[in-house]
Structures are given as C-alpha cells and as structure tokens.
Design goal:
Low-confidence stretches: none
Strand order of the largest sheet: 2-1-5-6
Number of strands: 6
Oligomer: single chain
Structural class: alpha/beta
Largest sheet: 4 strands, mixed
Order of helices and strands: EHEEEEHEH
Helix content: 25-40%
Number of helices: 3
Distance between the termini: 20 Å
C-alpha cells in the first residue's frame, strides 16, 4: 500500500497525471502492488508562489524540470527491488511525462503495518492480521 507524493516544477495537470500514472505503473511492475492500490498527492509548483529547490549532488545535475517522488510503503522490499523501482519510475516518467531521467528524484520511506489507517480510525492491516 504505497502512498505517493509527486511534486513537479513548472508543470500542468496533464503532465502531473502522466507522472502519477508513470509512478503507479512502475510500482505495479517493479514490486507487484495491486493495480487498484493507488493513493497519490500530485502537486505542481509554478516557481513563483511555490517552488522546488534542487541542486547538483553526486554528479546528478538537475534543472527546473525536477520531479520529486516520495513513496511511503510497508517495509520488506529488497535493495534490488527498490533499484528496479527507481529505474522503472525514471523510464516511465520520461516516456509518459517527458521528465528527463536525471531530474527524477525518488525517495522511499518504509514503515510497519500498524502505521496505516484507511479510514474509520482503524488500523486495518493490524485488524486483519489478528482476525
């Protein structure tokens, strides 16, 4: 159950939608999440009233085409699975949304089953495990 946040600079709703589809497709292909498991926040920044800061780090030179992808998901994926996910996100963000792969910055934060509530104030993963 990944929760995804995508922030992109100087973008429009169609490109945000394309980037969201790219990340979702990468998650289904690289780590096997269900196709109906899609929880995303897509935010465009105009560079004036809101912006993104970026720099060149570890030899990667980003520009104003930067796309930040933050994924929160339950722990358990191997480093190889995560690397495949990062590659696939960069490929599909380029294919679907025109993002240069060097501009696609991805971070994954992992947590436990008890850290999720899908509504009604319940921890459904915990309740399902004890039922």
């Amino acid at each position: 159950m990944p929760f995804v946040r995508i922030d992109a600079l100087t973008t429009d709703p169609a490109r945000l939608d394309a980037l969201g589809r790219a990340v979702h497709d990468a998650l289904t292909q690289a780590i096997g999440i269900p196709s109906d498991d899609c929880f995303q926040v897509l935010t465009g920044h105009d560079g004036v009233s809101s912006t993104l800061r970026h720099g060149s780090y570890l030899g990667e030179h980003r520009d104003d085409g930067v796309v930040y992808v933050a994924i929160t998901m339950r722990s358990g994926r191997t480093p190889a699975q995560k690397q495949a996910l990062y590659r696939r996100i960069a490929e599909l963000a380029h294919e679907y949304g025109g993002a240069e792969p060097r501009n696609v910055f991805v971070t994954v934060t992992e947590n436990a089953s008890a850290d999720w509530s899908f509504g009604h104030g319940e921890a459904q993963y915990v309740t399902a495990a004890t039922a």
